[in-house]
Specification:
This protein has 570 residues and is an all-alpha fold. It has 29 helices and no strands. The longest helix is centred in the last third of the chain and has 24 residues. Pfam families: TPR_17 (PF13431).
């Protein structure tokens, strides 16, 4: 009978039905499966096992994937005395079909009665099967199978369970991967899970002395440079990673060389913002643009390089070059990138083309997804405030807050990240409104908005900074100093609070000039383009009688204000 099934491949559905008939006969005789003790007729048992394995294959070849899934489940749901290797093969094939088959085959209702933790969809069932196989490999019940880890990696990546994937990679026995590959794999998992510090620590091991005699693991160095480029505090470590890639890739791999120069340029720019030395900051700014331009000459196809060039030029206030590169980025991404639109609008606002910037934002809102629409709505309101259109800005904030509330009530958040962004946007909107009402001298409305923000995020440095500004405009300087102290205790490097502290001290008395001057110098170290810091420093020099230095500070403040965006570029 088995030979008949194997050779009747010209009529696959009929072969599948004959194969199923064999299984039905055996199952009717053994409704609870076959115990290990029932093995008197080895040939019949072997034929039955082949039929169990063959039936799903026949259904797959026939194009009936739902029937194939049912056949796989039938082979697994009862004990049929399959040896461990065969059983693992059935489990792996079912997991692969559930993952890649494109057919949603829900479990029968009588399966679901087995418990609340039973899988509810293809993905959960596939992951459960792969977990079982991974455990079998760990305990040497079956041999190492790279396909199991490949399928598990895909499944857990698609479902966002990166930490669980890392746990299983850590369980893989030594010798399967070398140390550098294992650390790189784990770094990918932890990096995707948002645990950047853990990922970087693993990548530092790859770059450490223990691997000095081994072949350089370029993928690890490049990943390290990428992760460091996303964290200003790791800028110098990122420069080291990128330079390692460049040293190895010169005259060998143009793509890796371009990517390394891209990350090196970003890290140089971040290092410039963190530097306390003016000469070092100037050098890093120059090297940042040089590296990004070099990357652009190699990877002309990469829109990310154009975006980073636009962003870095914008931060350094090279607005014409920033505009050109951002336009190239928008063209390369077919104008489908919200961050490209946003950067373009900010560059236009820095050029004092506020109406054009608002038009760009309106266009971007129509093209964007929900979470990006909220961010762009806030930018639109800020642009309206800059154009002295308070009524329009208040209406835009009303729409923004209504949309956030509506999304919260519908519980349509897909990720924790989106929930966090919405929460942050709501706080920012209330604080923006507080500042607007404060400018309109509507103190009570401003206080209400601040209270709304504090209900959401009490320990927000910007909440306390806005509170201090409200006290300041009402000449309540002692209360303002207390609020600013709270703000700086939460975020010591928050430049607006540092500058505001100096402003309040200047208004209180002249005895605090040295303290105010020290605060402003610190603010300018952290943010050299802050025009408020330059202006207040000019006031101090004027009070000290240093007229020329005061004039220079006022001139710098004026020029920086003329090129200041309505929001920070980064």
């Amino acid at each position: 009978m088995a030979l008949i099934i194997y050779f009747r491949i010209t009529d696959l559905p009929e072969a599948a039905r004959e194969c199923k008939m064999i299984l039905d006969i055996v199952e009717s005789a053994f409704p609870y499966g076959i115990r290990e003790s029932i093995n008197e007729d080895f040939k019949l048992l072997e034929m039955f096992h082949k039929a169990l394995e063959l039936l799903p294959k026949l259904w797959i070849e026939s194009g009936f994937l739902d029937e194939a899934i049912t056949a796989f489940r039938r082979a697994l749901v009862k004990p049929w005395c399959l040896d461990p290797r065969r059983l693992a093969k059935v489990q792996k094939d079912l997991a692969a079909l559930l993952l890649y088959g494109g057919v949603e085959a829900s479990l029968p209702s009588h399966f679901k009665s087995w418990g609340p933790a039973f899988p509810t969809n293809n993905m959960e069932e596939s992951i459960l099967l792969l977990f079982i196989l991974a455990q079998k490999i760990l305990y040497h019940e079956i041999e190492w199978d790279p396909e199991v880890i490949d399928h598990l990696t895909f499944a857990l990546t698609i479902s966002g369970q990166f930490e669980s994937l890392a746990d299983h990679v850590e369980q893989i026995l030594p010798g399967i991967y070398n140390r550098a590959e294992r650390w790189y794999f784990l770094a990918l998992c932890y990096g995707a899970a948002g645990q950047y510090e853990t990922a970087l620590n693993l990548l530092k091991k790859v770059a450490g002395s223990s691997e000095a005699k081994c072949k350089p693991h370029l993928a690890s160095f490049l990943l390290g440079a990428k992760l460091c480029a996303e964290d200003s505090k790791q800028a110098r470590q990122g420069m080291d990673f990128a330079l390692k890639v460049i040293d190895v890739s010169i005259n060998q791999n143009e793509h890796l060389l371009g990517e390394a120069h891209k990350f090196l340029g970003v890290c140089y720019g971040n290092a410039a913002r963190m530097s306390i030395s003016d000469s070092e900051r100037s050098s890093f700014n120059r090297e940042s643009l040089n590296s990004l331009n070099h990357a652009s000459s190699i990877g002309t196809w990469d829109p990310e390089i154009k975006f980073n060039l636009g962003l870095e030029n914008a931060i350094q206030r090279n607005l014409a070059s920033a505009f050109d590169n951002t336009m190239l980025y928008s063209e390369m991404t077919a104008t489908s990138s919200e961050r490209g639109w946003k950067l373009l609008a900010l560059i236009l606002s820095a050029e004092q083309r506020l109406r054009d910037a608002e038009d760009i934002v309106d266009l971007a809102i129509d093209e964007s997804g929900s979470i990006h629409q909220l961010e762009l709505l806030r930018l639109k309101a800020v642009l309206q405030i800059a154009q002295e259109q308070p009524k329009q800005a208040i209406e835009t904030y009303r729409i923004l807050l209504s949309l956030i509330q509506a999304q919260r009530e519908r519980c349509e958040k897909n990720t924790d990240y989106e929930a966090l962004v919405e929460r942050k946007l709501e706080v920012e909107a209330w604080l923006d409104l507080a500042g607007l009402y404060s400018d309109l001298k509507s103190w009570q409305d401003a206080a209400i908005c601040i209270d709304k923000a504090k209900l959401i995020e009490m320990y927000s440095h910007r909440c306390w900074h806005t509170t201090a500004k409200l006290f300041e405009v009402q000449a309540q300087y002692k209360e303002a100093v207390i609020a600013l102290s709270v703000s700086l205790s939460i975020e010591p490097d928050y430049v607006p609070s540092i500058v505001s502290s100096a402003e309040v001290l200047l208004k209180m008395d002249d005895h605090s000039l040295p303290v105010a001057k020290s605060l402003l110098m610190n603010a300018m170290r952290l943010e050299p383009t802050n025009h408020d810091a330059w202006f207040n420093l000019g006031l101090i020099y004027k009070k000290e009688g240093s007229i020329q230095q005061a004039a220079d500070c006022f001139q710098a403040a004026h020029e920086l204000k003329l090129s200041a965006p309505v929001q920070s570029f980064k």
